[in-house]
Amino acid sequence: MITSGLRVAVIGTGARSVIGHHVPTARPGSAVTAVADTTAEGRSRAAEFFPGAAVHPDHTALVAAGGVDAAVVTTPDHTHADIAVDLLRAGIAVYLEKPLATTLADADRVLTTAAETGTPLYVGHNFRHAAVVRTMRGIVERGEIGEVKAVWVRHFVGHGGDFYFKDWHADRRRTGSLLLQKASHDIDVVHHLAGGYTRQVVGMGDLMVYGAIGDRRERAGETMPDWFSMDNWPPAAQTGLNPVVDVEDVSMVLMQLGNGVLASYQQCHFTPDYWRNYTVIGTEGRLENFGDTAGGVVRVWNRRHEFAAAGDREYPIEGVASGHEDADLATMTEFLAHVADGGPTLVSPVAAREAVATGALAAESLRAGSTPRRVPELPPHVLQHFASRPAATEGVPR
Ligand SMILES: NC(=O)c1ccc[n+]([C@@H]2O[C@H](COP(=O)([O-])OP(=O)(O)OC[C@H]3O[C@@H](n4cnc5c(N)ncnc54)[C@H](O)[C@@H]3O)[C@@H](O)[C@H]2O)c1
């Protein structure tokens, strides 16, 4: 157990690196003491975001300088695996942003390294900590809808043009697909709600709107908040897309879980609205969320009806009214407690691997005529390592 604060590094000082600001609140006495970014713009942001922290040109220099206990990795997806492996080997505990990696082989490489070194690995699947997910999970755990048999997710990614088509996210070489980049949150939550992992997957998708936009440019020195605007509408009028746009903007996935649960996930990046809608159907009822932040509700139907909009019971969604600051603070708190005290975690590296496996194989399926793919198991010795670590048994509202 570490009783004093932790010295935390942030690697990759772009839009997401601001989660590092939660460090002192998440574990009083802890601080961001070092940062690394491979670009001059990133290093100047680093000095602005984390004044007083040592600034390094890359993670190798940061490791060589020593003096950090843990690192938060907020670099583009295709860099996650190599950076995480180097940090784990150096004995630095890792908070790795989702997705864990862009390929199944890389995901397994990171987990294998964590198992072999024993260095703590945490993957930032903050959506598990979102109030809407905690509320849905509570309903399932209390047995209000019986035994879960089907999960259907519709994901309206209204900010998709700004979030995913104006920088590296649009390039398959850097993300694999938006089923990894964006859907890994929801695949993880489908697994969390259904109590199993996908073993067979089929995908279908296309690049329908953004591929036809010819107005493209590099955006050196800019990050997403610089170009995000609610006035960017309709989607076909977007300008300044990434030079390479080859990820799908509509995708659909069918999943069969190891416990027999069937699930589906639909993602569209040119809807007018931005939110997720879950339906979880059990043997004695179903739930559905309307809105996914404060002000929204989760309704439960557990008696027979024809159309009944109000349901039989309704739970308000608590937390923030927009975005995910509350879930970000919860994940950072959990990570630092896990590193310092060995505390349990609601998120899990094995689950993060299963989200990558499902998303990567779904993308492979949709690019190969929707032919099914089987998801291979993790090697037993790696599974055993993570099974021996504490998992959260609390934190779910009852
Ligand atoms: N969990 C969530 O809710 C959530 C939300 C947003 C982003 N993310 C994740 O955060 C990560 C970063 O996303 P972003 O939007 O901040 O990207 P970004 O492009 O804004 O920032 C990435 C930063 O990493 C730097 N960088 C690139 N390669 C590097 C390397 N090898 N070493 C060190 N620095 C490097 C870049 O210069 C840049 O400053 C992604 O993996 C994304 O999936 C997660």
Q: What are the salient characteristics of this protein?
A:
single chain; 398 residues; alpha/beta; Dihydrodipicolinate Reductase, domain 2; 9-stranded mixed beta sheet; 6-stranded parallel beta sheet; 14 helices; 15 strands; globular; disordered C terminus; binds nicotinamide-adenine-dinucleotide
How large a portion of the residues is in β-strands, by DSSP E?
A: 15-25%
Total helical elements: 14
| Major β-sheet profile | 9 strands, mixed
CATH architecture of the domain at 130-398: 2-Layer Sandwich
Question: How would you describe the overall organization of this protein?
Answer:
The chain contains 14 helices and 15 strands. The chain has 398 residues and is of the alpha/beta class. The chain has a domain at 130-398: Dihydrodipicolinate Reductase, domain 2. A nine-stranded mixed beta sheet has the order 14-13-12-11-7-10-9-8-15, covered by helices on one side. A six-stranded parallel beta sheet has the order 3-2-1-4-5-6, sandwiched between helices. Helix 1 links the parallel strand 1 and strand 2 (31-36). The two termini are 30 Å apart.
The gist of it:
This protein is α/β, with parallel strands linked by helices and 398 residues long. The protein has helices at residues 23-26, 40-49, 59-65, 80-89, 104-117, 131-141, 160-164, 172-175, 178-181, 184-194, 224-227, 325-341, 349-366, 380-387; strands spanning 7-11, 31-36, 54-56, 70-73, 93-97, 121-124, 148-157, 198-206, 250-257, 262-268, 274-282, 285-290, 297-301, 313-316, 373-374.
